[in-house]
Prior knowledge:
Elements: E1 5-9, H1 13-27, E2 31-34, E3 47-51, H2 53-65, E4 71-75, E5 87-91, E6 102-105, H3 114-129, E7 135-140, H4 151-168, E8 171-176, H5 182-192, E9 198-200, H6 209-215, E10 218-222, H7 226-233, E11 239-242, H8 250-258, E12 263-264, H9 280-299
Parallel strand pairs: 1-2, 1-3, 3-4, 4-5, 5-6, 7-8, 7-10, 8-9, 10-11, 11-12
Helix pairs in contact: 1-9, 3-6, 4-5
Amino acid sequence: MTITAWAITTGETGMRTQARGLAQAIAGQAVEKTVGESAFDPPWPDILVSCGRRAAGKALAVRRASHGRTLAVHIQDPRLRAAAFDLVIAMAHDAIPAGGKVIKVATALHDVTPERLAAAGEAWRDRLGRLGHPLAGVIVGGDLRGRRFTRADDEALLHALERMRRGSGAALAITPSRRTPAHTLALLAQAFAGDPRAVLWDGKGENPYLGILALADRLIVTSDSVSMISEALATPHPVEVFDLGFPRHQGFIQGLVDDRLIRRFVGDPAPPPARAPVNATIEAADAVRRLLQTRTGRSG
Length: 300
């Protein structure tokens, strides 16, 4: 049976990734809708996935307009009555309690699938393979509202990387984000200039991000991005988080540490123990499929 799906957000990258990732996991493809920009007209989809407070209200409006035919799934706390949705998917550290129509997951949802990782591994194998092994993939974020990525953070990250390399002999594949400050990029570029076993993406050409996720022997992620940490955990590689002390992420990070899914990165030469991939998108998609099957059974 063909399933039609919409992913509704305000256009923010992390929210788009979560809503699109879940909608695609269920329906194979999804139409992305942006609040304030897109038209919301029939034909209504079989399922809509919304993420973000403003998207929640639009999702419920579509559900009402479809006379309940559209299954409405919201990611994160909608700050509205959860019972108005067919399903709410919140993270373990979110304040909204589990139960009823609310399920809790350990990580953020995303669109990093095993198939995408396999394809990226093939595409980047030669280029990243030249660096040698063990290969440490370093995923660097940047400023968040209320907390900037400072020069002191730059120095601490660099010292931890140098300590790890001295003890392990690891090669480095580093990719920054659009939020990474210029001073961070400059320090990393200076530190590893001319090093044949280190590469820093300069923002030109194709981003090696997925290739690094696929091929690194260990992954080091800065703590400013719940999405980047969650995507790293979708791989089978050991994950360490360079903790910048962002208050809003401490519950998430501590929960992963307590569950032994990550380790805080301070430059330990040996990576943390291996673990199975953690992909909350698969768990959430299974829950939505069960709802769809129940609805089909009742209507049939």
